[in-house]
Amino acid sequence: LDYLVLLGTLATAFGMLMLPAIIGMTYMPSITRAGVIWGLVFGVVAVILTYFVWRHPLGIHTGGWGLIVNLITCTVVSSFTEKPSIERIRQTHGIWDKSAVASMEAAEKN
C-alpha cells in the first residue's frame, strides 16, 4: 500500500511539471524550447528533493514545489534564450491565438 501512495504522489507531481510546457505551447509564444527543457529538469530535481530529502517543506505538496521551480526556471531561461521566428510561431500558435502572433510581430517591428 505504501508503494501505491508513492506512485500516486509522484505521478501527480510529475504530471504537474507538464503544465508550463502545455501553457507555453498553446498561449505563450515567448516560452522557448530551452526554457521548457530546463524547467522540466529543475522541476524533477525539486520533486525528488522535496519528496525524499525534505518532506513537504512549508506544508506545500511535492508537485507544488516542482511546479514553482519549473515556472521560475522556464521564465528565466526563456528570457535569456533566442525567441523562435515569427514563421515558427505562426505554425505553432496561429491556430490557438491570433493576438499572440500579432503582439510578437508588433514587438519585432519596434
Quote the beta fraction: under 5%
Run of helices and strands: HHHHHH
Mean pLDDT across residues: 81
Radius of gyration: 17 Å
Overall geometry comes to elongated
Structural class: mainly alpha
Helical element count?
6
Helix content: over 70%
- The first-to-last residue Cα distance is 59 Å
Secondary structure: number of strands: 0
Largest sheet: none
Low-confidence stretches: none
Describe this structure in words.
With 110 residues, the protein is mainly alpha-helical. The protein has six helices and no strands. The protein is elongated and about 55 Å long.
Keywords:
single chain; 110 residues; mainly alpha; 6 helices; 75% helix; elongated
Strand-helix topology:
Elements: H1 2-16, H2 19-26, H3 33-53, H4 62-80, H5 86-93, H6 98-109
